[in-house]
Protein 1
Amino acid sequence: MSNVNSKNLISGAKAVMKKIHPCGSNLFLITRTGADVKLKCLGCNHKIMLDLQKALKSIKKILPPEPPSMT
Ligand SMILES: [Zn+2]
């Protein structure tokens, strides 16, 4: 069962994409959610916008946001 559903799409969470970006990274940061999902490639900082259904199909796995660092 996939853990990818719209509830897991949280701003600040990281998404592992099914397709590897041309820069070689498949890790994207979710920067906006809603009817359209905005993602930023963590390899090259390229930003993409996908509609929700497309985003859910393109994401392999969602990593929960990291806890804020206490340093
Ligand atoms: Zn990239």
Note: The beta strands are 14-17, 27-32, 36-41, 47-51, 59-63.
Protein 2
Amino acid sequence: MTMLVSGCERTPPDYRPEVTLPVYSEGDADNGKVIFEEACGQCHQLTPGLNKKGPQLMNIYGATAAQLADYDYSEGLKASGWVWNAETLDPYIEDNEKVITDSKMLADPMPDASERADVIAYLSTLRAPVPTLDEDGFPVETNVDSTDKQIVNNDEQIKPLRDKAIEIPAGDANKPAADFQ
Ligand code: HEC
């Protein structure tokens, strides 16, 4: 294969296989979502390729621990051999540093078992099919409508937004997104 030499090669996003386990029903997933956003969202999001301090968590339920090629895990988590289900997620969320030697996850412990069950229920609902990938491992765009008319219309819609975007004053908006720090 011919490779283009480039100074800024992008790492392709890694995808966990889609979850096949049934949803965990001993917690309230809606409440779990609220808790997740508060307690986990600062370090975790759900889009493959966009790891924050922690790895993205799409399709985490039933997945092997530390399996994403585009995230740098601790040796302890890599060596755990764990599969993420209620039995492993519960003590991990309760206090990860107690169960994984050398854990990199600096999250506060969550002593309330029913909150943990809610978070696990929510995590078990996070499932998305793996997209078709090109030969470099990037998702192939689908649903691209390429008729000329469509492009003109899109441009009409986008132009006012684009003009507006240029006026953003210097300040917070110009800082790099936290995801990429
Ligand atoms: C302060 C940042 C931070 C917070 C808050 C946090 N995490 Fe993490 N999480 C991490 C990091 C960093 C790792 C990687 C751990 C390692 O490599 O040892 C991780 C790893 C994980 C993993 C393993 C992922 C994998 O691919 O194997 C799961 C599951 C997880 N976190 C769930 C949660 C949940 C649920 C919460 C909220 C209750 C949470 N985390 C809160 C930073 C955080």
Note: The chain has one domain: 12-163.
